Every structure is written in structure tokens, then in C-alpha cells.
Amino acid sequence: MSPTPPTPAGAPDWARVRADFPLLMREVNGKPLVYFDNANTAQKPLPVIDAVDAFYRRYNANVSRAVHALGTEATEAYEGARARLARFLNVPGDELVLCNGTTFALNLVAYSWALPRLQAGDVILVSRMEHHANIVPWQLVAQRTGAHIRVAEILPDGSLDLDALNAAMTGEVKLLALAHVSNVLGTVNPVREICREARRRGIVTVIDGSQAAPHLTLDVAAIGCDFYAVTGHKMCGPTGTGALWARRELLEAMPPFIGGGEMIKQVSFDGTVFNDAPHKFEAGTPNIAGFVGLGAAVDYLETLGREHIAAREQALLAHLTEELQRVDGVRIFGTTPHKAAVVSFLVEGAHAHDLATLLDLEGVAVRSGQHCAHPLLQYFGVAATCRASLAFYNTHQEVEAFIAALQKARALLG
Ligand code: PMP
């Protein structure tokens, strides 16, 4: 058993932080829950749960429509969430489109930016490690425009092959779509350097920040990309919340994706004048309560301190990796030194789903399967992996419990 590393100066009291998450107190199959599926969705702290509860109890109303007090309060809270998220990402609020998650955000870029612009012969460059949400929208655009998808390959350690990526950025490439952090490997891609190179070559960049926003000290403006997508439920916020940041000039040049109320200034049967960005892309009633919760989640993460969150997760990752490497027959996918606290693995002779099922019997929640990244698993030549993904509220004791449960499962399956 390895010793628990000391807490860095100024870090929160993590035991007290954990107590903010009521769900983590429950048992599963008679065992204390060990929730290691954070890359799938994160748990919610009391301030988020309370914010959603308070919205429905005290000021539930639609946004931007009613002049009455409740409508004003709801609109202020919703716009307040936009302002908080914008500050968190370091982008202007009027360049931040609120939507229901990364999947929607990436489709918005595909349908509003790429579809009207790309043509036969153009190339969309994606990496091997993308989530399906950053592959399939581009395939749909390619089918309709005659553009091609080109794949930037990875190296066996799960890092991007940067030489190959640079070589792939030829004159036909109009768009590069890339994950900031891989949801399977944990690899943190050097997006700043990559975007600088892409910009030099006139390539528009779309960064999928789903797995980065909850874990890294993030400065979207400094990355120098053109589009950046985030999803709220992985940031301790409610499901059905997320955002797309885009450079103002791109947002202004893009047609609306979905039409309806809220995204217009004036409608007549002769034609419609659209609202200004970002509202032009926010038709219909949004997930108001969800965004109220997301605003609280952003405040919560900022109060903990993102540098403290990152340090805590790195300490847990180091512990987990070290212990896992000692288990006989374990293969870890994604071994770059610069990675987030996501560990995909297999145990020789055991199927990922069997492992995950036996771990669940011990109260340990990991994800098994293809993690919405079929092409990546094809590269490694495996049908599925188990994935343990950590958050700051996990503990070193949970790492030990996970390893004990894994040893037990291994013995049963071996
Ligand atoms: N991209 C990555 C890297 C992800 O991990 C996920 C969620 N698993 C998504 C996109 C899609 O996010 P959502 O389902 O919240 O839209």
C-alpha cells in the first residue's frame, strides 16, 4: 500500500469537500460506493442541487419573455450562468452559445459553419482519439458536401503523432476537429501549439473540451482556437447543459441552426430578422434550471480552485496507475506523462464487461465498452476496455478498494 501524498498548501480539506456530495454516501450491493465513472458524468455537490431546488421552489419562470418579477429573476439567473461560464473559460459572454451539451455544440458548428462552406475536395481533419460526437457530425457534413475526412493518427502511448498531424494539414484541409483531452486515454493534447499551426495555414479549429473543462486550469482565449465546446454534466452541473464558444466574426457569419422563439428580432410572413449572436442560436425554452445549477457548479469549482483540483486528481491518478501496474496481466491504454485522471485498462483473459460487473458487485462503478470511440479501440485492436475515471472528490482509500475489488475479480475470472 502506498502512503497518501501530503496535501499541497492552501488546498481544500478534501474530506469536507467529499461531504458536499450526498450521493457518494450511499452503498451499492452492500458496499460503500466507489464512483470511478466521472468521465461519463460527474456527481453533483449540494450547492448545485440546492440551486436547482431553489429555482423550482422560488422563481421558476420562462426567460426573456415575461416582464413580471419571476421572469426577471429567472432571466437574470440564466444570464448569470452564461457570465459565470464565460469567466470560467475566459471568453466574452456574448460569444458563448448556451446549448444542451457538447454533442449539440459540435453539431451546431457542423450544420451552421461547415455545411454551407465546405465543398467537394475539401478535407476535414480529425484525430484517431475522437469521441463519436466529434466524428459523426463531420461525416454527415462530408456526405452532403463531398468533403473528405482525414484521420490524424496516434502513437502507441496514446499521444497524437504531431509530425503526422502537421503533415496532414495540407491546403485542402478547411477544418480541424480535435479533443482537448481524450475520454478514453486521458491524453491532454497540446491544443495551443496545434491551433497556432492550423491558424498559420488558414485551418479553422474546433476543440472538444468535454473532458478538459472539469479538470484543467482552462484558458480558452489563450488556446487560440476558433470553436470550443463544453458539457455541463461533467463539470458537476446538471445534464442537458453545455456551451459553444466561437469567435465573434464566425458567430456573426453563421446562419441559425434551429429556428423558433427567442432567436428572432422580428418575424413576418415576408421574412425574419434574426437576433444577435449568441441568442440567434438559442431557439426555444432552454434548460433554465439546468443552467442555474451549472452556474452554481462553476462557482463551486472556482471556490475549490482549479489548480487544487488538478493537483488532487494528478495525485489520485499517480496512485491508481502505480497500483494498477502491480496487478498481474493488466494492460493500460494511454501512458503519456501528460494525461488527465482517466485510466483505460484490461486484464488478460477477462472481458471488460465481466470485470465491470464483478467490480460493481464490490460497489465499484467503472465504465466498460467502447466509450463512444470505436476508431480508437480499433487502433488498439480490442473490442472493449474498462475505464476508471477520477474526480477530486475521490479518495486514496477508494483507489485501494478498487484495486482490492479488481484482484478479487481477477481471481474469479482467471
Ligand atoms: N466528447 C467527449 C470527449 C466526451 O467525453 C463526451 C461525453 N462522453 C462528449 C463529447 C459528448 O458529450 P455530451 O454527451 O454531454 O454531449
From TrEMBL:
Pfam family, one: Aminotran_5
Highest taxon of the lineage: Bacteria
Catalytic activity: (sulfur carrier)-H + L-cysteine = (sulfur carrier)-SH + L-alanine
Assigned EC number: 2.8.1.7
Span of domain Aminotransferase class V: 34-402
The keyword Transferase appears for this protein: yes
Cofactors demanded by this protein: pyridoxal 5'-phosphate
Keywords: Pyridoxal phosphate, Transferase
Protein name in UniProt: Cysteine desulfurase
Species annotation: Stenotrophomonas mori
